[in-house]
């Protein structure tokens, strides 16, 4: 049987790992290559790199970061941030990404998902969604790192993106991002119930119990960032906790 | 130093395959001509994406015969993920496209309640006499080879039922998982394949 995945996420800006709260107030969290290698050593199942730079120079730096991380990393690498066209995805894959995340640009032009999926395969096309609660039991898609609300329903958007070829959903609760309040379990359950592809829970993890709740709600994987970067816990400790709770993980 | 030639199936994660071999101090090269596939010491057939485009790419490059010949002669060849499926006769993914047909199997899609694609780490359980070690490997696939062909040894894995996660004959090794993304276990597998005496 497939193990549940624990995935450290590195937000990258100007060649450094950064982390904030709800994507704001970014603080330095180290060197991406050193962090990625350390997390693999701790038992990470995969690494996600999100390029949060906003300039063309920043984008070029991100490709260099992907190349440098790939050279040391022998587990899968997903890269997102600023992917606007198929050629952006191709450039990241050529640099050593295994999967590519699309977010804002796919909301503006959903066919981007179909283009990436048909060229590189669905298992390579990850839909990244930033979700914010809008009403009871509903969530709205946020774009441009949470700067803009779209009015688009998260569950409907995920369903549509999967129909277009997305092979995985990286589901971030914008409300919980960096807060340590735990994942939005209702959001995970709602999306899990609507799509046939794996869902990665993201936003708010502080303790093993949060990961357990997300995985029991249907997530295939749990994304973690702040608590690892700050040294509060390790991937190995989180996985030990999951294993003790009866959740199958790769040791 | 081993010579490793990669068949450019026009697919996505060749950079990861190259990086994995570089960590083993091998510099793989991409094949440009069929003779390079025919004559190479070791050949890797990677694959990410869909069955038909990969088969068509091999045909465009004129490499079908070179690949088929070296695999039928059990010469050192490593097929990864879709690369393994290409050895089969056909696939449900692309019903109108003939595979390399080295084994008579038809590739089928996962069915049932589990998420598809299968994305993540799963247990590889070798059976019979094979160079494979048991362990956790990284998978990214929606389709699979349902049964081990006659005269091949290999390994199986469970995802809503058993499927073939690797098959081996002579110096030919085909893996449904990604050894280049399977941590130390995967790197050890690549090292054994590299140095196995053909």
Structure commentary:
The complex is a heterodimer of chains A (251) and B (198). Chain A is of the alpha/beta class. Chain A has helices at 32-42, 56-72, 86-95, 104-108, 111-120, 154-164, 185-192, 208-216, 226-229, 235-244; strands at 5-13, 16-21, 24-28, 47-51, 77-80, 99-102, 125-135, 138-143, 148-153, 168-173, 199-202, 221-224. In chain A, strands 1-4-5-6-7-10-11-12 form an eight-stranded parallel β-barrel, surrounded by eight helices. The radius of gyration of chain A is 16 Å and the shape is globular. In chain A, 57% of the residues are buried. Chain B has 198 residues and is an alpha/beta fold. Chain B is 26% helix and 28% strand. Chain B is built from six helices and twelve strands. Chain B has helices spanning 14-22, 34-39, 51-60, 64-72, 82-86, 183-195, and strands at residues 4-6, 29-30, 42-45, 77-80, 90-91, 106-109, 118-127, 135-141, 143-144, 153-158, 162-169, 172-175. The longest helix of chain B has 13 residues, at 183-195. The two termini of chain B are 15 Å apart. The model of chain B has no long low-confidence stretch (mean pLDDT 94).
